[in-house]
Amino acid sequence: MRSTLPAIFSLLSLALALSLTSCDRTPNGVLSKNEMANLIVDLELADAYIDSHTYDFTDDSSKQVLKQSIFKKHGITQQDYDSSLVWYAHNMEDYTKAYDKAIGKLKERYDKLDKVKGKGVDEGARPAEMNADGPMQGMPPAHGSSPRPSTSKRPMHKLNVNANASGDSIDLWNGQRDYLLNGGARRGFITFDFPPDANKKLGDRYQLAYKLIRGGNEFKVSLNIDYTDGGTAQITRSTNSDGWVALDVQSDSTRQVRRIYGYVSYDIKRGHMARVDSMMLIRSRLNKSNYGFIHAQRLLEHGSKK
To answer: Are the beta carbons of 245 and 207 closer than 8 angstroms?
Structure first.
């Protein structure tokens, strides 16, 4: 009996290790929760730096240089980040875990600085989510000089869409169409996710459209189609101007669409506001004349990674 104990303990250890590993499993091309947490830490620190050095970052290009340097540090590209955002926008529980882990890392870092300096760090130097009176309001400060990070989920507007409309060209959107976003929103998503309507056909085209007043804030939009036999047709881009925003995804005429989903992500500056309204999702039939027009559309085939 004794001789079997080491083998049993080894199997138990292996099972535990595998279970811990599987908890952080994401599809190929998507950052794991730990990788995403580390990236969020650097992005939050970059935001705090930009907020406290506004004269050095007077345009979007200078901010983009800093952001790209962070991507390079983590060995990823803008496309890697976009693909990860798409997956996490649909798996908000996993995103919240990654985000909470990142805030824990940030708190540890600032607590160490507090001890080294022998006094509290200037609140303006902390990421907004670390401040008791910042965008993540409603959370009382912890005991001591340093406020605790909010454990609240990032702001998210979830839509439940019922897309059983009929017709050759119809608006499938059935939910909130207008959003007024202020500095308290900070970063977040407007997300949607639903199966195709009962009258779907092969080769249908989907267009997400809305009116945007940016107010100088950062917006990104993504529209995606999952196929029943695997793979995702995806298009993601940043929005740098006011007015109508339109994003098209052309479905493959040989593959069945399983679901249509996506997000509008926002990053609202302190003291600023933005507005998204007239949200629409237009499903139109196959048009051979524009079938090949799939500018910036990508096809992702899914696997898994640790």
So the answer is: no
